[in-house]
């Protein structure tokens, strides 16, 4: 059992089960925190929901803010002003950049740059600062850039109550536009250099690339109507591990027809699966005949036909040439490519005079009693589903979070890594950090996905076929 | 009109006969915190935040209903008063469900201002987390009982200024709450003229404009002052 799991956003532990021969039979990733946002939001006016649900998370509040505002748009049954949509898109791009930069530079780069066996005391962002000061500084500034976009639009970096049902509360000032623009060259330079470095590192991480969650599964994400990479609107697409589209133009409002939410007794994190192919039971390894799917950067790059901006498109082609699109280790690569396309998209978006428009909010009252709002959070597809009474008070809330949708894949990843490194009754040291890193590749946000609070922990327990504890590690 | 001379916080002050200690202090730029008091409405002395010490009187007296008298020696900011005021605000915070971060009145709330003024960064008392309702059945406004501090400003402004008397109080103790008409949903209260004076008078986010999002509520006190000045002094000036 690994408890607590560190350098992830949340609280978790891992149990590894051995068979009679002492080989790993299964591994379980448990999320041990619970908050219950869905329940205590009941009875509140739906207009408050963007501000309320943004408080689920301090890292990706914008994702909740936008998904909730979109759900609110649908309850009002309005089409928001074009400027409001463009501004919301701009903020989401900033959000993806800052969250991906946090995941790669602050949380994962210590493993990649300092090595799996390096001293855990140095294996953190401060260690990276000492070893690679330029890269660390660039990464921190990249995150700052993403947050600056959010601040210029919403007035603050975290939890701006800016997107509302019907539109947004403010436009982008000309001064704010220039503030964002002046950071663009440096941000682009940093991400291009990091991409070059990552591709060099890939040579050294062949083993990890092959065992860190490298298995067949479905992938789900939003794509635009012409199949381009999408982050705010569009339709859902599901592809298999060979890149074949198995479901396209899925309407998010019908998510219950194609997504089931399984509950496991040992984790507060639900396990969504693709309903038509069924829930993957414990004995099945991932094959196409079950509904295990992944979301997030890797999935978004796997589902789209093209990414839609020139530099990122070139990178996407290189990414696909590796033929490793089933490896969760490639989440890191996908994250960097997404940062690049977000920067390119911001560069283009800033020239649009609509961003200074004053027509930002459609006014209406309750016109629908049920709605679903979907967007792409940094970690994957995010669903908000509300039902309200005639006056606008919530009677039902369901939130399906990206990390939850990766739960089954994270379990499989932990099992795959454990099988590779554990042979016997002890937990070898190199395995410990690799299991964490395997989970970290998904950049799980457990506070979001269980809507849970807590600090960051790791505990691993190794249990024999009779359930007896053989070894245990804490950090 | 005779003049009364008194001392507030060691400052010699002249006041008109019949003035309250609160009016006199405010005229002399001495701030005394209040919550239930609103200029132009009758005073009820309910919140007890304006309690002051008067020499020779063993009890603390509410400044909003205490009339000035010749030779009064008043202290408005002693350690004891500040302790009590802080406790009153803490009690209000613990008694309701006040979550500033997601409140429509965040940044525009008298309770929040008082808490900031008194340096309340935490509450030592046990939060009660009462199960209270939200009523947004009215076409223009909403009431969230979670944020109500029972100051009765809405009841008084509706009765004394608008003359509708839509609002009243029901229940006792911790079950006390504001009701519209005969405890009907606000949207069904036939006496309500939808004037919005109660919303403008509310010190917190308990009464709000329907559709308000976090921090969006504005209490248009100037509009209320305009109406009250017009009624009481026959002056239609802004």
Predict the CATH topology of the largest domain in chain B. Answer: Alpha-Beta Plaits
The major β-sheet of chain A equals: 5 strands, mixed
DSSP E strands of chain B, number: 10
Low-confidence stretches of chain B: none
Biggest beta-sheet profile of chain B: 5 strands, mixed
Terminal CA distance of chain B: 28 Å
Subcellular location (chain B): Membrane
Organism (chain B): Leptothoe spongobia TAU-MAC 1115
Keywords (chain B): 2Fe-2S, 4Fe-4S, Iron, Iron-sulfur, Membrane, Metal-binding, NAD, Translocase
Domain 4Fe-4S His(Cys)3-ligated-type (chain B): 80-119
Itemize the secondary structure elements and their pairings.
The complex is a heterodimer of chains A (475) and B (238).
Chain A: E1 2-4, E2 12-18, E3 24-31, H1 37-40, H2 49-54, H3 61-76, H4 82-114, H5 125-131, H6 133-154, E4 163-164, E5 167-168, H7 174-204, H8 206-211, E6 218-223, E7 235-239, E8 245-250, H9 255-258, E9 259-262, E10 271-274, E11 293-294, H10 297-303, H11 310-321, H12 331-349, E12 370-377, E13 380-388, E14 394-400, H13 402-405, H14 407-421, H15 429-440, H16 446-449, E15 458-463, E16 469-474
Parallel strand pairs in A: 2-15, 6-11
Antiparallel strand pairs in A: 1-15, 2-3, 4-5, 6-7, 7-8, 9-10, 12-13, 13-14, 15-16
Chain B: E1 3-8, E2 11-16, H1 21-27, E3 51-54, E4 61-62, E5 73-75, H2 79-95, H3 110-117, E6 134-135, E7 141-144, H4 153-162, E8 167-170, E9 177-180, H5 197-201, E10 207-209, H6 221-233
Parallel strand pairs in B: 1-5
Antiparallel strand pairs in B: 1-2, 3-4, 3-5, 6-7, 7-10, 8-9
Keywords (chain B): 2Fe-2S, 4Fe-4S, Iron, Iron-sulfur, Membrane, Metal-binding, NAD, Translocase
Main location (chain B): membrane
Pfam families (chain B): Fer2_4 (PF13510), Fer4_Nqo3 (PF22117), NADH-G_4Fe-4S_3 (PF10588)
